[in-house]
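Blackboard transcription, Thursday session:
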Amino acid sequence: MSEGSAADSFRLSLPADPKQVGAARLFVATTFRMLGADEDLVADLKLAVSEAASAIVRAQGLAGRILIEISSVASGETVTIGPLTADDMAADDGIAPGDVVVAVFRDARIDEHKHALVIPVNRPRDS
Amino acid sequence: MSWDATGSGDSEADLFERRREPAALRELVDRYTPLADRLARRYQGRGEPLDDLRQVAAIGLLKSIERFDADRAVKFATFATTTILGELRRHLRDKTWSVRVPRSLQEQWMNVARASAELTQRRGHAPTVADIAKALDISPDEVLEAMDAGSAYTAGSLDAPVTSDEGAATVGQLLPHIDRNLDNAQDRVTVAAQLRALPERQRVILYLRFFEGLTQGEIADEIGISQMHVSRLLRKAIADLKHHLIDDSPSDAGPF
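(Written on the board underneath:)
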């Protein structure tokens, strides 16, 4: 996931443990607040990260890791979270995590090469 | 989107086709209530009881079932998530959650901050979440929740001047005095539980008037009847609703 990372990126690696989903959420929320994001965006990110991290936990089990990277790009930021496949995002208890994620981030997609969910977060830059 | 390939199944399309029938509506509601609950739980810890959040999410679910266009390419779960989140946010905004952190969470945040400072001083490096949890005898999740609240709810003072100029207005002076929407959300939740007892047309009119905020004229245009007729049906619906609220039996007080 770290391949080709921008210089100003934030990364976190956690055990794929249900107890760590909250930490994943907090990492993304705190980083985006630090970057000046409003609370609506932070709430959307927390929702998407919860869905993705929970999918990783289900797919990987305790031996796996949750890897999150937040990188700055021209239009805002990109959140990359994995390892995840399209199947992981479709697996569910009736409701696919992927369907929930695209409700808040329409352009979110699985990057087969990175083996991760990529969430483009477009927002006006503070300058 | 590769996980989006399957789309809604035939049986679901059929349910949406028949969504005005109580059995089909109930089936859709049952099927997607776990989604509504899941989204409601994401907004816990902001001073609103989970039960209230679930009720608000349930209203959002009902709205999305009503509005969903099964012919469009979007899946219902995605459409419903957007609608339910919108409803939850409106509710939380009505309750001014951004400046009203529950006292218990404020205290927890202060405890966490204090423990973190003490441990840092004692050990010469920042403590982990587990260290703080152990020091305070709370769970790591509670530490995380307090930290999240601490970073989210840093409210500015109402007495702070908006500019550095002498005599500048304060934030408080620029705010409207009364937020008339403040207590409406709870009322909406209570009333929503009774709406299903009304005839469909009255329900639609009430919904458009009080949930969507349309004027009587706009409602008339929307459903193709005269404004006089809308006015009459609205009066009738309110009278019926009052009747149901007064006579309501607790066993029938579910969200739908």
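Lecturer's comment: Chain B touches chain A at residues 1-4, 6, 31-32, 34-35, 38-39, 42-43, 75, 77-82, 85, 89, 98, 129, 140-141, 144-145, 147-148, 151-152 (CB under 8 Å).
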